[in-house]
Amino acid sequence: MSGPITITSPQQLSTLLSSSRIVVVKFYNEWNAMSETISAVYDSLADQISRPGAVTFAKVNAEQQPQIAQSYQVASLPAFIIFKTGSVLQKINGANTRQLHEAIKRLAAEANSDEASDDFGGAGSSSGSGGAWLGASLPRGYTDVTDQVDVRGLDLLNADSEFGTVRTLFETSAPKSLGKGKGKGASTGGEAKPDWVESDVDEQLMLYIPFTSTLKVHTIQITSLPPTSNDDDDDDDDDDDEAPVRPKTVHIYTNKQHNLGFEEAEDITATQTIELKPSDWDAKTGTAKLELRFVKFQSVSSLVLFVADGEGESEKTRIDRIHIIGESGEKRDMGKLEKVGHDD
């Protein structure tokens, strides 16, 4: 992680633009109140998202470097210019933190996708010092808003406790099964811990996802990497253990106050039901894109994903990662989080 680079000459900026895929430049002066207000936000984004050669943050004191400010027609401060491969892509004027944050997150995700193309066929993105791994490319104009998931309120029914927890699904790192140890989990305390979720008594899973802000949800990315006949290892399972499969039928419900029971879900009409085909799964990353009817997902405070069945005859379903793609809106007043139980 690193903060913004201070630009002291036009030559330095020119060199930077040629050495980093994406460059974000803040124009400011020290006496401008709005410049000072947004400074902490900008520095925080730089710390989170900067990656050498991919995403670089810089700052230009417009009074000390008038030539640079004039060359990019910077008239009011603060101002932000986003460059991609050396060309101006977007200008943002004023202390609009939301617009700045959304623009930078979108471009950082694009940079991740470009960077990972050699490893994952151009579909995914790798997690560096900033930016999360993605299993598929982003639709134009939308960002990965998985960071808006309220992890405190997540709930997963019918999950096998020998595997990962519900929070595993929203980890920002790439699944370990994409690496050399295919099918193996991350090592914790010297013991391999699977970094995916599997169903328990049958193939069904019920996942409740609350958000910290109201979202417009465009796409849900689901990554599932069950072992294949070509895998060398057997995940240390007994030979007669049933291999897990990918989800097939997924029912999606919006704006529920808590998770649904399995019988309850079957009695409620889903906001949308998607049936995944084998061809929907990317061969490199094991990711399928659930493209939603966007008009029905315009003001979403929570989602319930009901995996009703899986591919084939197996009674175990596996999910490695989930990403929510769309637009973030106003923060919700979460109040006191209370766990909803089923006891009387």
Q: What does this molecule look like?
A:
With 344 residues, the chain is α+β, with helices and mostly antiparallel strands. The protein folds into two domains: 5-115, Glutaredoxin (3-Layer(aba) Sandwich); 123-331, PITH domain (Jelly Rolls), CATH 2.60.120. It has six helices and 17 strands. It has helices spanning 10-19, 33-49, 66-71, 97-115, 117-120, 262-266; strands at residues 5-6, 22-28, 55-61, 79-84, 87-93, 143-144, 155-157, 186-188, 191-193, 197-198, 205-223, 247-254, 272-275, 287-291, 300-310, 318-319, 321-331. The strands form four sheets. Strands 6, 7, 11, 12, 13, 14, 15 and 17 form an eight-stranded antiparallel β-sheet that branches. Strand 2 (22-28), helix 2 (33-49) and strand 3 (55-61) form a beta-alpha-beta unit. Helix 2 (33-49) packs parallel to helix 4. The protein starts with a strand and ends in a 13-residue tail after the last strand. Mean pLDDT is 82; it is low at 116-130, 180-190, 232-240 and 336-344.
- Biggest sheet character: 8 strands, antiparallel
The name of the CATH superfamily of the largest domain reads PITH domain
Portion in beta strands = 25-35%
Return the string of H and E elements: EHEHEHEEHHEEEEEEEHEEEEE
- Count of discrete alpha- or pi-helical segments spanning 4 or more residues: 6
Q: Tell me the structural class.
A: alpha+beta
The total count of strands amounts to 17
CATH architecture of the largest domain: Sandwich
User: N-to-C terminal Cα separation, in Å?
Assistant: 49 Å
Report low-confidence residues grouped into runs of 5 or more.
116-130, 180-190, 232-240, 336-344
Protein name: DUF1000-domain-containing protein
Biased composition (Acidic residues): 230-242
Region (Disordered): 175-196, 224-248
Keywords: Disulfide bond
